[in-house]
């Protein structure tokens, strides 16, 4: 997993914890289900799911791979619309090329993050570059959807491209964990991603047997997702395996520990740690649109059909591709 590596002994460190800490307990462990997306690639999705429909302010987490594609096998998500939230794509291995209806685009590769605020609306495509499709290779990434409050849903679409080198690197006090802070703040450090909804989002690699304690804002929710390997979460050490998400309760800090045994290819236990300030507003969602009311969803579909979310050069999808409206929680195959 290249993402980004560094010698933790040379990095700034988190402060050590006082002996008395208000640790958050583990409320729930959710095992991601597998789902087909875009042109037919498999993602692991811990939410939305029957066990966890929403992790306010987060709407969706898709874990893509890790998968070793053969020549011609790599797939992506061709042109599709979004409105009402932000998509955050973090690429650990392989590459995604994106294009959008504003004429923007770029290449997202090892350790980089693309932050797209769909806001009032955009059309985009997310595809592996042709060279990667031709050759094949290791592909591993994550897409997170962050909701926007009603007051921000109509903000103009924008991108933030965060290069691997921009991510804030921090070490745990004993050097056993490397933290890549992508967005928000942690202790006295600040990550590069700028968000409408306050969140903290990081990728940590924790050495075999090492423990990672993180201060966490009391008003944020707190989630830990295992990208690979095995570990334990919370004071009581509940096991968390690859593809599982731990949902924490209230408190001011999180504790997690890597198991002594990890996959042979891994440098440690790889986890995402994320949390944000809950928006606490009604959520109406249908595929790629996330609004507050059903009427706003119908408006989004009409706007898309009328071309008001933008135009693509080569539209792969037409209005006829959208399924009829189904229950609010449904996320269809074109739901990215
Ligand atoms: Mn998308």
Pick out its properties.
single chain, 336 residues, mainly beta, Jelly Rolls, seven-stranded antiparallel sheet, 2 helices, 5% helix, globular, disordered C terminus, binds manganese (II) ion
Listed once per kind, the bound small molecules are: manganese (II) ion
Task: Using the coordinates shown, work out and report the CATH topology.
Answer: Jelly Rolls
Instruction: Describe the strand arrangement of the main beta sheet, using strand numbers.
Output: 1-22-19-24-17-14-13
Q: Count up the helices.
A: 2
Q: Report how far the terminal alpha carbons are from each other.
A: 24 Å
Class of secondary structure makeup = mainly beta
- Write down the CATH class: Mainly Beta
CATH architecture: Sandwich
Choose one word for the global shape.
globular
- What percentage of residues falls in helices of 4 or more residues? under 10%
Number of domains: 1
The largest β sheet comes out as: 7 strands, antiparallel
CATH superfamily: Jelly Rolls
Give the integer mean of the pLDDT values.
90
In percent terms, what proportion of residues is strand? 35-45%
Rg (CA only): 19 Å
Tally of DSSP β-strands: 26
H/E element sequence: EEEEEEEEEEHEEEEEEEEEEEEEEEEH
Low-confidence stretches: 315-336
Question: Could you explain how this protein is built, in words?
Answer:
The strands form six sheets. A seven-stranded antiparallel beta sheet has the order 1-22-19-24-17-14-13, with no helix packed on it. It has a seven-stranded antiparallel beta sheet with strand order 2-3-4-11-6-9-12. Strands 5-10-7-8 form a four-stranded antiparallel beta sheet, with no helix packed on it. The protein is 5% helix and 45% strand. The chain has 336 residues and is mostly beta strands. It has one domain (11-310): Jelly Rolls (Sandwich), CATH 2.60.120.10. A hairpin with a 4-residue loop joins strand 7 (95-100) and strand 8 (105-109). The chain is globular, with a radius of gyration of 19 Å. Mean pLDDT is 90; it is low at 315-336. The longest helix has 12 residues, at 294-305. It contains two helices and 26 strands. It binds manganese (II) ion. Residues 77, 80, 82, 87, 124, 126, 336 line the site of manganese (II) ion.
